Amino acid sequence: MFVCVLGSVATVDSAAVATESPARHSLVVAHAPPRTTLPGTACSVFPADNVWSTSISQLPVNVNSARWMAAMDSSTTNLHPDYGPSGNPRQPYGIPWTIVSTHVAFTRVAFQYASESDKGPYPLTASTPIEGGSDRHALMVDPHASATSSACTLFETFDTYFHPGSRSTAGSGAIWKLTSNALRPATFTSADAAGLPILPGLVNYDEVKRGIMAHAIRFTAQCTSEAFIWPARHEAGQAAPRCPPMGARFRLRASFLLPPAQCDAFCQTVLRTMKNYGLILADNGSNWYFQGTADTRWTFNQVGQLKAIPASAFAAVDESCLEVAANSGQARQPGTAAFAAHCLAR
After folding, report:
1. Which residue, 315, 341, 174, is CA-closest to 248?
2. d(Cα 343, Cα 60) in Å, to the nearest integer?
3. What percent of the chain has a predicted confidence (pLDDT) above 70?
4. 3-state secondary structure (DSSP) of residue 111
């Protein structure tokens, strides 16, 4: 049975919203950047200065961009939304997630990669929605403070199987405090191959409907190198230096346009997001597949229009200048002196 899940809603902290200049990759930011808040909770998806919600529109092109783009067959590939309607109206494609109720029972999970997984316990139950297909991700947000976890905690598992008692299993698992910029230890996996959280990078119906999706989007590539770059923490690649590392970030060209007749308001919101926040390489998979929430409200038209975006309209950016500390997802913000000094004066 498909469990209906909620979507995150983007709210804006200040009176002004970032706006893109078509003449060059620039962004005018007034006061605090937009932040994403989970509905039904007081939980923001990480602090407002987190790298996931930091604009990359002004960043320089990465020196490896052309090589990485070629490795992903960018000249002959269009983007593919890895979510949307399926043959079963109650079980759409995508990654489901759920908000944990107050009295949920937490359980211990036995992990295949136990040395790199957070022990838990996890709020995994028989009713927790689990992604279809081979990855079987389970994403759970607990907004409540309890003896088990602090308020606003994100739990994510990979290859998840729930069994009553203490027999639940998963390949790996990670626990994220949504109030913190802390990253996982270097070389540690998560529920994702890149050691990153999954939920912050999903295209979300409620955000797109409101016209504001203020965060990067996770995507996959068939070939990744045996390397990772900040903010990723883990690699799962091959000895192929031509391929991009986990954590590589890509930006849609500012001048790229699709006419309204071909790209409606939903589609235009996703385009703006890809120009301002970009894509983060988070896992191995089909080239240029980007992920979204499993939501019964997606339509074939909303998803299908995004398939007209050519991968060749992207370029890899160098976001190393955003890094404040190696073990933190905090990023230098556009419009600040620190950003100007580290990212613009090069």
Report:
1. 315
2. 8
3. 89
4. strand
Residue among 216, 282, 238, 222 nearest 70 (CA): 222
Tokens of 6: 């909620």
Residue entry with tokens 């031509």: 242
pLDDT digits (tens, 9 = 90+) for 24-37: 344 444 345 566 78
List b or e across 253-275, with b for residues whose CB sees 16 or more CB atoms inside 10 angstroms: ebeeeeeeeebeebbbbbbbbbb
DSSP 117: S
Angular region, 270: left φ>0, alpha ψ -120 to 50, beta rest: alpha
77-128 tens-digit pLDDT: 999 999 999 989 899 999 999 999 988 999 999 999 999 999 999 999 999 9
Give the integer Cα–Cα distance in Å for 12 and 32: 8
3-state secondary structure 309-338: CEHHHEEEECCHHHECCCCECEECCCCCHH
